[in-house]
Amino acid sequence: MELKGKLVLILPPVTGQGRNGEWKRQEFVIEQEGSFSRKACISTWGDKVNVDELKTGSMLNVFVDIESREFQSKWYTSLTAWKVEVLEDGSGSQTPSSSQSIEPSPFDPPTQVYREEGSEEEPKDDLPF
Predict the structure, then answer these.
(1) Which backbone phi and psi does 51 adopt, to 5 degrees?
(2) Smallest Cα–Cα separation from 78: which of 33, 116, 25?
(3) Distance between CA atoms of 95 and 104, rounded to whole angstroms?
(4) What is the pLDDT of residue 124?
(5) Assessment of whether the complete model's pTM goes beyond 0.70
(6) What is the SS3 assignment for 111?
(7) What is the pLDDT along the chain (129 residues), one digit of tens a residue?
(8) How far are the Cα atoms of 62, 113, 122, 124 from residue 127, in angstroms, in the given order?
(9) Furthest C-alpha separation in the chain
């Protein structure tokens, strides 16, 4: 899933020791634009996203995975970032690292061409078989 918004807060990193070794989690908050602005706290694990390069006030395009888990009959949902694109830095200028082309999501519906019933025109078929 893709979220666009302004970076409003970078939380301090959290580290710990688990049975598989040391782990690191970094969280940040973005505010999505719209008639009712919404804030979302997004986590990154390990070194997937370098939060040190981000500036408060930057416009971001964040690619996240959404997961919900049950613990003692309560459900908890987390947003985990796996890619962050900086659209504008905190000063409002475009950054050279911003990417204009976005990979299509596997969840996007396929593009189909529909023709009206009773139409004389046959759809063009460019398949070799």
Answers:
(1) -70, -20
(2) 25
(3) 22
(4) 58
(5) no
(6) coil
(7) 899 999 999 999 898 988 888 889 999 999 998 888 899 999 998 877 777 788 899 999 999 999 999 999 999 999 999 999 998 876 655 554 444 333 444 444 444 444 455 555 555 556 565
(8) 37, 15, 14, 9
(9) 69
Whether the Cβ atoms of residue 86 and residue 59 lie closer than 8 Å to each other: yes
Nearest-10 Cα torsion for 89, 59, 100, 108: 160
- Buried b / exposed e across 66-86, counting CB within 10 Å, b at 16+? eeeeeeeeeeeeebbbeebbb
Residues 59, 8 contacting (CB under 8 angstroms): no
* Domain made up of 2-88: CATH architecture: Beta Barrel (2.40)
